[in-house]
Amino acid sequence: MPHAPTGGTAPADALHGLTVLAAEGGGTQTVDPSGPIGQLIVAALLGIVVIIVLITWLKVHPFVALTIGALGVGIGAGLAPDKTVTSFGNGFGATMTSVGILVGLGSMFGRMLVDSGAADRVVDTLVRRSSKAALPWTMALIGALIGLPMFFEVGLVLLIPIIVLVAKRSGVPIMKIAVPALVGLSTMHAFVPPHPGPLVAVSTVGANLGTTLAFGIVLAIPVIILAGPVFARFAARWVDIPAPDMFGSRGSGAGSVPSGGSGPSDPAHAGREARRGPATQDTASLPNGKSDFTRVISEPRSPSFTVALVGILLPVVLMLAQAVREAVAPDAAGGWVSLLDFLGTPMIAIGIATVFAMVFFAIGGGMDRSAVAKSLEDALPPVAGVLLIVGAGGGFKQVLIDTGIGGVIADAVQESGISVLLVAWVVSALVRVATGSATVATVTAAGIMAPIAADLSTPETSLLVLAIGAGSVFLSHVNDAGFWLVKGYLGTTVGQTFKTWTVLECLISVIGLVGVLIAGVFF
Questions:
Q1: Please, which residues have CB within 8 angstroms of residue 343's CB and are 6 or more apart in sequence?
Q2: Please, which pLDDT band fits residue 14 given cuts at 50, 70 and 90?
Q3: How many CB atoms lie within 10 A of CB 288?
Q4: Rounded mean pLDDT, 499-515
Q5: I want to staple 394 with a disulfide (CB 3.0 to 4.6 A). Which of 39, 91, 124, 442 is the partner?
Q6: Which 3-state string (H, E, C) describes 106-170?
């Protein structure tokens, strides 16, 4: 990923000042504001309001809303209509080039993880080896591991049957099990690539992906501990409810929701059924050769725990290795440097993990070539909407830059003396609360903050991405689909969902912001 440029920003006057902004690919370009500063500010504010109203009131798809808002901002700011369309298209294409491939490969890897049984193997192994007291911590680890390669919604419906069954079998209050798992999942979604939100923020502000990944993992540790197992103790007292009777067994009706609820089916169920091996008979005999009963056994196959864990961590290790090399030996040369940089390139790292899953997950899970092909094919349709949203966010960002609005925002923030990281968090949090979408909040905030990143160092730009990610999960409430999914699956009331899910999302956001601000002192 391109690094933030180091060039400065020249102040803009009221009409025709020049502002040096980050252009696609990490370079710089000089932009003449398309109109008076007052007109630029009004156009930007009205554009954001239009996007929010379209999404929340008229229920327009975020892709359409972002497109309309971006074009409206460009024209309203005085940019010619044809140039506005060109600007939006350039931003859309650049974002899809840097993010689209990664999201597609990441989705394929996540689907293979589920369909092969590798996700089941990781979860079952960790839960089986945990004591009752350690279960909340284990569930936080499971949520983080499952959340590392998977989109939030898929991870959620995969974790819910695990949460319910672990609570039932262990006798531990369900909130002590559910809260840590949900925190692990949501924290990865907000802070750690290759999730679409962090990816598009990295691309938009020109951050280094390896550095952002490293910072994100480090930041996630205290966030998961405090908002997960620690907060779970209070949540279990505030909301003392039994585990819902929504899952008879893993893979048997799993993923259904209680009466009155709605939600996707368990994504692992079809894979389990497809991977069941030949039925075997287990006969218990009585004296004199009389058979007491015959039990038919047909258990799903799955990769080993080691293979599953290697697959999950492989892209992380490759990208981190490249980031460490850049930090420790930035001027190093030679074949090993070229190889490490190649393997650590995000597209290559995630691509290698996907091929690893196609081979080793499939072998361990007993999947044939047609099953692998079907799994990869099924992975792409669910992310089509996400790709369009992040692409439109990239187009919106480019319109802000080409009109000169980005330069006005950058100058205003720099002159105010307010922390850029705090401003990024506030912008992201406001859009999140208004729209209910973490992805929309991330792409919108990243577009607004992109010009400011031009004067930031590589570590500061990565912290900017994390500040945006922290704001994007703030105050989940009734306009957030995740709010209703958690409520329906766990069988809580609206008030109980606010006391648990909404509070834990706020904790993730605020603790993440505090961590980013502390790190900002050192960088």
A1: 318, 321, 322, 349, 352
A2: very low
A3: 5
A4: 95
A5: 91
A6: HHHHHHHHHHCCHHHHHHHHHHHCCCCCCHHHHHHHHHHHHHCCCCHHHHHHHHHHHHHHHHHHH
Beta carbons of 285 and 292 less than 8 angstroms apart: yes
3-state secondary structure of 22: strand
**CA-to-CA distance for 326 and 340, rounded, in angstroms?**
10
- Which tokens go with 259? 């009466």
Report CA 266 to chain centroid distance, whole Å: 20
**What confidence category does residue 280 fall into, taking pLDDT thresholds of 50, 70 and 90?**
very low
Q: How many whole angstroms separate alpha carbon 488 and alpha carbon 120?
A: 23
Please give, one letter per residue, the 3-state secondary structure of 393-460: HHHHHHHHHHHCHHHHHHHHHHHHCCCHHHHHHHHHHHHHHHHCCHHHHHHHHHHHHHHHHHHCCHHH
Instruction: Check residue 23 and report its DSSP letter.
Output: P
Q: Give the span between the Cα atoms of 447 and 26, in whole angstroms.
A: 15
Buried/exposed 378-393: b ≥16 CB within 10 Å, e otherwise? bbeebbeebbbbbbbb
Report, in angstroms and rounded to the nearest whole number, the Rg of the chain calculated over CA atoms: 24
What 3-state DSSP class applies to 474? Answer: coil
Task: Compute the CA torsion angle 192, 197, 198, 202 (nearest 10 deg).
Answer: 160
Least trusted range by pLDDT, from 77-81, 446-450, 500-504: 446-450
CA distance 130 to 475: 32
Residues 6+ apart with CB under 8 A from 499: 235, 238, 239
**CA 140 to each of CA 184, 232, 446: distance values in angstroms, whole numbers, following the listed order:** 5, 10, 29
Write out the E strands in 218-377. 280-285, 291-297
CB atoms within 10 A of CB 347: 12
Residue 449 CB neighbour total at 10 angstroms: 30
Q: What is the pLDDT of residue 269?
A: 57
Per the prediction, the chain carries an average pLDDT of 79
* Residue of higher predicted confidence among 221 and 153: 221
The C-alpha torsion from 132 through 136 and 138 to 141, rounded to 10°, is 180
In angstroms, the CA 345 to CA 326 distance is: 12
- Res. 118 pLDDT band, cuts 50 70 90: confident
For the beta carbon of residue 128, count every other beta carbon within 10 angstroms. Answer: 8
pLDDT of res. 425? 94
> Is the predicted pLDDT of residue 243 greater than 60, yes or no?
yes
Q: Is the pTM of this model over 0.90?
A: no
Question: Pick from 6, 8, 11, 4: which is nearest to 411 by CA?
Answer: 11
Q: Which two tokens stand for residue 336?
A: 């090993």
Distance in angstroms (rounded) separating the CA atoms of residues 399 and 21: 12
Highest mean pLDDT among 18-22, 23-27, 466-470: 466-470
Using alpha carbons, list the distances in angstroms from residue 365 to 53, 138, 169, 331: 47, 24, 26, 44
Mean pLDDT on 401-410: 79
